[in-house]
Amino acid sequence: MYLNCKTWFSFHYGTFSPKDLLEQASGMGITAMALTNINSTADCWDFVLKCQEKGIKPIVGTEVRNDNQLCYILLAKNNQGLTQIHHFLSHHKVKKLDFPDRPTFDLQDIWVIYPFERHPEIEELHPQELIGLGMEDLHKLNWQEALAADCWVVLHPVTYQDKAHYNVHRILRAIAKNTLLSKLTPADYAGPNETLVEEEVLVAAFARFPSVISKTMQVIKSCNISMEFHVDKNKKYFTASEEGDQELLRKLAVEGCKTRYGIKNRQAMARVEKELSIIYKSNFCSYFLIVWDMLRYANEQKFYHVGRGSGANSVVAYCLRITDVDPIQLNLYFERFLNPSRTSPPDFDIDFSWKDRDSIFEYLFLRYGKQHVSLLGMYTTFQRRAIVRELGKVFGLPKEEIDELVHKREWSPEDKIQRWIQKYGALLVNFPSNVSVHAAGVLISEEPLANYGVLELPPKGFKTLHMDMFEADRIGLFKFDILSQRGLGHIKDALELVQQNKGKHIDIHDVDRFFKDPKLAHMIRNADTIGCFYIESPAMRQLLGKLKCSDYITLVAASSIIRPGVAQSGMMKQYIERYHDRDKVEYLHPKMKELLEETFGVMVYQEDVIKVAHHFGGISLEEADILRRAMSGKYRSENKFELMREKFFVNCKAQGHDEAVSAEIWRQMESFGGYSFAKGHSASFAVESYQSLFLKTYYPCEFYVAVINNFGGFYRTEFYFHELRRNGGIIELPCLNQSDYLTNIRGQQVYVGFIHLQGLEQELGHRIVEERVANGPYLDLHDILQRLQPAPEQLNILIRIGALRFTGLDKKTLLWEANFRSKRVEKEVLVNLFESEELQFTLPKFDEDRMEDLKDELDLLGFVVGDFYELLDPMHLQGTVCAERLQDYLGQQIKVIGRLVTIKETRTIKGERMCFGTFLDVDGNWLDTVHFPPVLKQYPFLGSGFYELHGRVMEEFEVYSLEILGMRKLGYKL
User: Fold this and answer.
1) What per-residue string of b and e applies to 34-47 under the rule 16 or more CB within 10 Å gives b?
2) Ranges 57-61, 616-620, 732-736, 831-835: which has the least confidence
């Protein structure tokens, strides 16, 4: 009887979560139900699985609409019918076409139900085409004359739960329409009675028309959807057969083992054999080979890449050169990556430069076929800030009031509209907002992907499946993670710049040499790592300093320790203490010494959670991996975390473990399991960090130019220009005859790229370079006007930044002449056979003002390329201390002048707001500050610029910082 039910995956329309819909249906004794979300089947398999758990027969289809116009409902009689529905929806979504008034494909496996208000003539209907009747249609007599047509079914739409959610529905419609709630028309939203009603109510309403009820039951009985959940549906074979895959994988692994470890390393070969046997039994050969083939192609194209994730725990992956992390050297725990009980394929995270990743996507689509490859979808959800902003708009609040509410974390409503925002905002939290694209996931299936979902073509240009990773995992479609990373981009670009500028070729994969380099050890120990992948943030630099980190193994640990869970649980401090003083190492239980001796009794890696859960808590390896994933939120709303917790404590009690010890071990596991890295993942990050650090140490100018051109570091671009200047770079402002669109380097001389000029059109920036390459350097202002014909405001930008200084004229003269000459050029014919005579005139000499130049740099670049402290009145520096002398003032109150770099906001245990600040002092050195809640309230940050800081010098593990007691913002002397 329920052939038209929607969930919140009818975006901006339905208000039921799938769970709530089925729990309510089960409570009402409903035995069959159709999910028909609008132009979508996004949550259909979750719906099918939950129906099976509740003993409800699932029917799957879709409600086809063109904006407000309901066209018809499609119900799949079987899986073939559902595939047809997916093809139909995909075709129209990819092509951006309106849906036709009637389906144009074979309807043998599909029911079509038209709304009563809009249906074809009864005589024209095919046997699979029906007309739906709502309870509100029963009083209309005209249809009863055609009752014998056997095309009538009960069609009661289910959209929302109750009156409150009806209001939520109307709010969602206003958000979708980008209009005020008061301006919605009845056509924009659902009817007033689209709730889940008792089956007896529907039967009673249609009691006079038993043929309608029987036809409805016939439709329900005819629909049967099936799915083998948690069964691998990825591409089965890389070659043509299982035997072929096993043979190829073994050949590659054995050859790679000989290359990586030498021909006589029995330990490595034994590990390869052990892993291969598990890979064979788990039928994961094709997974390894697909990744290997992708990287083979990447190497042919000279695409730089890094393999990481738990895949780095595998020797086979190391031998196939999927990763550059040696699992034997690091004693990596293979069972974190793959164990005999695991049913899902292992995790490989493959990073490419952000410039190369799309080419990899294109290769995969071509290699395995467009019907079998897609990007993985995801769903953005409504969260607090977006909710407040959207509700403020639909309720008609002015922008200023909305902005104020958005930036307040907590507020008491002052009127009824603010009360509505709080009330309905609470109901909207976690509602899906729209389909998006997963950051990295790619699906490669054995059967066409249309068997499982709808495909769409987002702006990125690659087909994307209407399904998130949880739904895909449920049905056995396991993603390949192919990520885009700016860090790899700057390494690749730096290598090219070193080749161009220094004529040197660097083997960046010779990481063993980097690990042994004393200069690199010195750089890490002193936390001189600005610009280096993953180790440049203030928190990471402080950690490196506290550890006195100077080797690869310690850096691997640091890469995981810095993650939020370890730091917040207090275990990071424990690790540092025990690292420096082994006498402080304590183990909660003898078993913990066996498991965690390498990390001084502290859980640092994801493997530690698995090992402790398995060996101490008596949980199987498969369950331990489920626990790890549950801790990271990958089994949302499935209660697996609580089930594993209960099992852990039951097992601990059965083994006679002390209850307090078990509770503390669980606390440590829980506190960081969702944030920590696999050791292989940390090791991969550490390798990339060393590669960055090598380039920074030996080729700092080329390195920083590459970082600047990739726009992906932790800090704003201006601070990389600062580091470039500190490391010997001679930075020049943009110049028409020297600059490129991106920043370039010749020798030590660096010209800022046109891309950094705010307000300069991208097209003009590229055209300046192309014209110069094609026809030689620009000669003078007249030549520039003739060749580029820039708009006056664009030419003014170039003059103000000094890009025409090669002409020998000052900026004011150039601005005056440009304004005069550009008007003449506009009147000239575009193509002249003869050069027109240039008008000569004499201007007075204008004064030059350094402060005006600095102001132009600030306005047009957002920073100055020279010493930023030129903008500060020197009087403020009197009586100040520099960052490098903090250790001389330990425990004392001092005054420092700092230029704000970045702020990290956090919360205390009491929930109060506090901050960590990072500043640059007058010598260009970095300073870290701590702002506790009372002081932060009294002395808040007021944007970028200079601050006069008053504070007490603190020290922890010989790393110095300033506890702020007071501060004030200082202005520029412009």
Assistant:
1) bbbbbbbbbbbbbb
2) 831-835
d(CA 35, CA 747): 66
Here the tokens at position 664 are: 């503390």
**How distant is the alpha carbon of residue 68 from its chain centre?**
33
Contact 116, 143 (CB under 8 A): yes
Report the SS3 class of residue 533.
coil
Which residues lie across from 66 on neighbouring strands?
69
Q: How far apart are CA 599 and CA 597, in angstroms?
A: 5
Quick one: tokens of 374? 């897609």
Residue 153, token pair as written in the block? 């079914």
SS3 assignment, position 465: strand
pLDDT at position 328 over 60: yes
pTM (2 d.p.): 0.83
pLDDT at res. 566:
67
- DSSP H helices, 711-760, are 717-726
Provide the CA 339 distance to its chain's centre, in angstroms: 29
Residue among 609, 471, 549, 568 at smallest CA distance from 46? 471
Distance CA 864, CA 898 (A): 16
443 membership: H or E segment, kind and range = strand 432-444
The total of other beta-carbon atoms located within 10 Å of residue 891's CB is 8
Q: Taking the chain, what is the end-to-end CA distance rounded to the nearest angstrom?
A: 75
Residue 194 half-sphere exposure, CB side, CA atoms within 13 Å?
23
**pLDDT tens profile 386-443:** 999 999 999 999 988 888 888 776 777 778 898 999 899 999 999 999 889 998 899 9
Helix/strand number for the chain, H first, E second: 37, 21
Dihedral sign, Cα of residue 75, residue 79, residue 85, residue 90: positive
DSSP 600: T
785/665 Cα distance (integer angstroms): 73
Return the number of other C-beta atoms located less than 10 Å from residue 262's C-beta. Answer: 9
According to DSSP, the β-strands at 480-485 and 730-732 are: unpaired
Other Cβ atoms less than 10 A from the Cβ of 587: the count is 14
Q: Which residues pair with 462 in a beta bridge?
A: none
pLDDT of residue 565: 64
- pLDDT 10s digits, 673-725: 556 777 888 888 899 999 999 999 999 999 999 999 999 789 999 999 999 99
> Could you say which DSSP state residue 867 is in?
-
Residue located via tokens 């993953």: 534
* CA nearest neighbour of 65 among 131, 13, 130: 13
Work out the mean pLDDT of the chain and round it to a whole number: 91
The residue assigned the tokens 């009603």 is: 197
| pLDDT-derived band at 830, boundaries 50, 70, 90 | very low
